[in-house]
């Protein structure tokens, strides 16, 4: 990768136009390699794209090798994408070691079905518009991956790399990380000496102010199934004579939450940590202009915040104009998004053709629960199961109910008092010129607590993406400035680590940190 070759003229032009200055040869190479990387449709969980996933894995392996590191592929199972393991040594004795986790797989990109928002360009062709790069994976997680590798590459070339860096990039993150733990544990010696694991797969609260993540929610995904007759029935022949599974399912789903959206499962909120004064102060320093985003999202946000402040009369007397949330309304909204558990209904499926004249004999619903610190996954599943069966028994329909757990992921809280968290904050401030906002995210990266336990270290999330990047959605994008400065943040983070005077505690959080107090 020492020869830039023919860089993507469009990507370079976008970068230059946005920052009013050339991006430089090194950044041109980064953007060109991102163009090539995005062009590989590494869609996991779909056998049709398995060869592409392996091609993407080889792309990452070869890049790490070309930078000067050792790298190899590790199989995770039949029909699955491999892990990419890499290690770049700084060549200095007593050097610290940083582990880096990311993923090269992406979700699919629907281009042939009517949706509210459609791709404006080919999702697998890197396209530049107005200072942003568009394409599947540019923000989740191919762009941050390459920015991280290039940060190490540049420090190595500048003879300023004083930290050993080991990488693990997986190709099944979007499909449940199947086979990841077994494959990693069989090669854990690649990470000998690691004192921290860095992840860059999170996003800012807005588009303008850098953030540092200190908490993620976990997830429980279940399927609720109600079955009745042995076969589908004709509504004109049998309607009214049988207890329809769909009616039962609708009643069960409707009983999951109250009018305010609060989960009605018994004991669901019992173990949620109370809000500490320390964390409450963090919310007072946050701002978020919801009017920048989709109106439907903004209206839902206003309703969730249970405030009338979002729709007020203007000075011209016109009512209903949307205003940015602020004050207590904004704080309540953010707490609902980040630190409170929730239950969501995603879709309903039926047996048979789905015709309006057919009574399906079996109906299912995909439901998820987002859980937070101190909520136990097994306990929450048991609470949900008991509640659903109790509600179903009241119906006395004669149908059958079953609940299947499809996947789980634990929540995570950072040790904000750790030397590594502080180093990340300093790195962000040095590059962006402002202190990062400390925030949580409502989504999760389930492997975060697993990696902490496996390596016996703390995790740090360094965000490069912004709130409007639309990961997983049409027109996924990343701002060129964020990507290039994100690379610089990683460089500064590595330098901050190298200057630490003594090894930092690994497995236990120091007293007084958010991860030990009630947050």
Would you kindly provide a written description of the structure presented here, covering whatever features stand out?
The model is unreliable at 1-9, 306-320 and 504-519 (pLDDT under 50). Helix content is 33%, strand content 21%. Strands 1, 2, 3, 6, 7, 8, 17, 18 and 19 form a 9-stranded mixed sheet that branches. Helix 4 (142-157) crosses helix 14 (480-498) and helix 12 crosses helix 14. A hairpin with an 8-residue loop joins strand 11 and strand 12. By secondary structure, the chain is of the alpha+beta class. The radius of gyration is 25 Å and the shape is globular. The protein is built from 14 helices and 20 strands.
In short:
With 519 residues, this protein is α+β, with helices and mostly antiparallel strands. It is built from 14 helices and 20 strands.
Which terms would index this structure?
519 residues, 20 strands, 9-stranded mixed β-sheet, alpha+beta
Write the layout of secondary structure elements.
Blueprint lengths: L8 H11 L5 H14 L11 H18 L2 E5 L8 E6 L7 E8 L23 E3 L2 E3 L7 H16 L5 E8 L9 H6 L8 E6 L11 E6 L1 E10 L5 E2 H4 L6 H10 L22 H8 L10 H10 L6 E2 L8 E2 L4 H12 L3 E9 L7 E2 L2 E10 L5 H19 L4 E10 L2 E2 L5 H14 L4 E5 L5 H9 L2 E5 L14 E3 H19 L21
Helix pairs in contact: 2-4, 4-14, 12-14
Number of helices: 14
Our Rg estimate from Cα atoms comes to: 25 Å
Largest sheet: 9 strands, mixed
Low-pLDDT runs:
1-9, 306-320, 504-519
Strand content: 15-25%
Helical amount: 25-40%
Average pLDDT works out at 88
* Tally of DSSP β-strands: 20
Q: What does the overall shape look like?
A: globular
How many angstroms does the end-to-end distance come to?
A: 45 Å
The computed structural class is alpha+beta
């Amino acid at each position: 990768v020492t020869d830039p070759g023919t860089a993507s003229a469009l990507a370079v032009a976008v970068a230059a136009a946005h920052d009013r200055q050339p991006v430089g040869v090194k950044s041109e190479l980064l953007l060109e390699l991102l163009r090539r990387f995005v062009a590989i449709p590494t869609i996991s969980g779909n056998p049709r794209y398995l060869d592409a996933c392996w091609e993407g894995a080889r792309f990452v392996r070869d890049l790490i090798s070309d930078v000067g590191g050792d790298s190899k592929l590790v199989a995770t199972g039949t029909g699955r994408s491999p892990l990419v393991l890499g290690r770049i040594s700084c060549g200095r004795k007593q050097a610290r070691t940083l582990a880096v986790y990311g993923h090269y797989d992406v979700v699919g990109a629907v281009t042939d079905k009517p949706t509210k928002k459609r791709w404006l360009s080919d999702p697998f062709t890197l396209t530049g518009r107005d200072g942003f790069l568009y394409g599947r994976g540019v923000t989740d997680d191919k762009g941050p991956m390459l920015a991280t590798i290039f940060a190490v590459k540049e420090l190595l070339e500048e003879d300023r790399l004083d930290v050993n860096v080991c990488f693990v990039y997986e190709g099944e993150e979007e499909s449940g990380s199947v086979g990841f733990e077994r494959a990693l544990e069989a090669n854990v010696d690649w990470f000998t000496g690691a004192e921290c694991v860095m992840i860059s797969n999170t996003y800012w609260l807005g588009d303008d102010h850098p953030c540092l993540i200190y908490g993620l929610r976990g997830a429980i995904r279940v399927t609720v199934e109600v079955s009745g007759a042995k076969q589908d029935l004709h509504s004109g022949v049998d309607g009214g004579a049988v207890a329809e599974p769909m009616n039962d399912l609708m009643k069960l789903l409707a009983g999951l939450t109250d009018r305010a959206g609060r989960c009605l499962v018994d004991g669901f909120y019992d173990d949620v940590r109370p809000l500490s004064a320390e964390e409450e102060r963090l919310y007072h320093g946050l701002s978020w202009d919801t009017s920048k985003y989709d109106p439907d999202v903004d209206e839902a946000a206003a309703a969730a915040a249970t405030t009338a402040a979002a729709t007020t009369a203007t000075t011209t007397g016109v009512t209903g104009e949307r205003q940015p949330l602020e004050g207590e309304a904004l704080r309540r909204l953010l707490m609902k998004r980040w630190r409170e558990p929730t239950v969501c209904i995603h879709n309903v499926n039926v047996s048979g053709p789905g015709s309006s004249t057919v009574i399906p004999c079996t109906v299912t619903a995909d439901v998820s629960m987002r859980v937070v610190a101190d909520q136990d996954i097994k306990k929450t599943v048991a609470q949900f199961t008991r509640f659903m069966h109790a509600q179903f028994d009241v119906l006395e329909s004669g149908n059958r109910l079953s609940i299947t757990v499809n996947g789980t992921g634990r929540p995570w809280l950072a040790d904000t008092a750790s030397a590594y968290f502080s180093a990340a904050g300093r790195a962000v401030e040095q590059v962006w010129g402002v202190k990062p906002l400390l925030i949580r995210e409502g989504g999760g990266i389930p492997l975060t607590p697993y990696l902490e336990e496996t390596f016996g270290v703390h995790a740090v999330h360094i965000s490069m993406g912004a709130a409007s990047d639309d990961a997983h959605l049409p027109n996924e994008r990343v701002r060129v400035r964020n990507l290039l400065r994100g690379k610089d943040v990683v460089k500064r983070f590595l330098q901050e680590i190298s200057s630490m005077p003594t090894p930092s505690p690994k497995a236990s959080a120091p007293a007084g940190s958010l991860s030990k107090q009630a947050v």
